[in-house]
Amino acid sequence: MSPPAHVRVGQPVHAPAGTAKVVLALLRKELLVELRTLESVPGMALFAVTTFVVFHFALNQNTVSGQEAAGILWVTLLFAAMLGVNRLFVADADQGGFDAFLLAPVDRSALLIAKALSLLTYLFVLELVAVPAFALLLLGPPLSQALPSLLAPLALGDLGVAAIGTLIAAMTVRTRARDLLGPMLTLPLLVPVVIGCARATAPLLQAGRAGSGTLPLRWLGTLALYDLVFGLIAYAVFDFLLED
Amino acid sequence: MTELAAQAAPGTLAEDRPIAVALDGLTRNYGERAALEDVSLALPAGATLVAFGPNGAGKTTLLRVLATLLRPHAGAVTVFETPLPQEAWRVRGRIGLLGHEPLLYRELTPRENLRYHARLHGVGEARVEEQLDAVSMTSRADEPVKTLSRGMVQRVAVARATLHDPELLLLDEPYANLDPAAIDLVEPLIGVGGDRSRPRTRVLTSHDPGRGLAEADVVLGLRGGRVSLLADAASVDPEEIAGLYR
Lengths: 244, 246
Known about the structure:
In chain A, 73% of the residues lie in helices and 0% in strands. Chain A is mostly helical. Chain B is α/β, with parallel strands linked by helices.
């Protein structure tokens, strides 16, 4: 864990930046680069919509509901998220962003937080496209009634993907087979997240009971705990991943 | 350390100057290969050390160790009397690195890149404009870096490396890709610095014996990661430098 960035020896030339300001600076840079390149979010959204279309034809049924609907939704979101996870640190690795950050007198966990926040942002935009597309292409019960309750599993699922995805992406970005290693390491760790989200979502998408199903708090609690554990693990080991 | 300092750079040490960079048996490996092996030297504050050597001699590795980007595998490294890597966080803000990579995001403009680095280093935006003006890039400051020529990118990289006015400058072939006019532009930024109360220490690599010797107070010659020459620049013959490359 890095000592506080504000502790310095000698005459400071300028005021050291606090962690919150550094996180904001990193996040701003991330979102700006993504807006200029559109390398992650459009691909994620297009993948999700295309997958729903393929399911629509492959299942040979007009609508799905309940556990089947929840499973399709979360598996699709998971694989779409992997596209974003794979690209999370690529620009930094290829264009010297790691070195630039490591040269700065800042708390290194700021990079973890900023990257997780940027991935969360991408997932939010993905779901803005994917969830309505899912409702249009596959879902039987109307989404509008289930949506308020759906926000909780969506949020907890996104947090889990952000924590685990950022950690694994940082571990694999400087390896030769990062495009293969990343998913191989991330997907098994995200299986509990998918299970929890799917179990929590299924009652909400039940035919004839859409919106009236209660959120299984047990699954939400499990998700929250899982997210917390991996968030803490990521925070504890991230510094060591950056060092050479 | 006094004995090491005397051995390292006879004739150049002012006794009242603290040692800015001290290496004692520094070793750094890449797998089985030793990129640096048993390198020892002491550089006083305000002095310039120029490292010569063929490709693969360990010059860039040396700079990256001093920049706290690489951990030594053996030996001791201190910068401004701070041991690295254990307390690297104490000195990061006082070090500037101009390496082979410009450390600029290609999709962002020079102004956006410098503002980003300024925020990381706690430097105000006025300084960003000063630096852009100093390297004559104000007129191109809002075009993506990927559209700029290599020389322009190098100028912006110089502006980035000196944005926070570092006390220790690490320069890896700083004049590469620069035309004579551009070299005149960047020299004030990467030179010794005018403030004698806070002298700037420099470690730079060069393949140009003439220019390198002219800038150096201390000359380091590396071959295969080992020190083959370490002396006061005034006592070094250009032929000795040429011998490093044979």
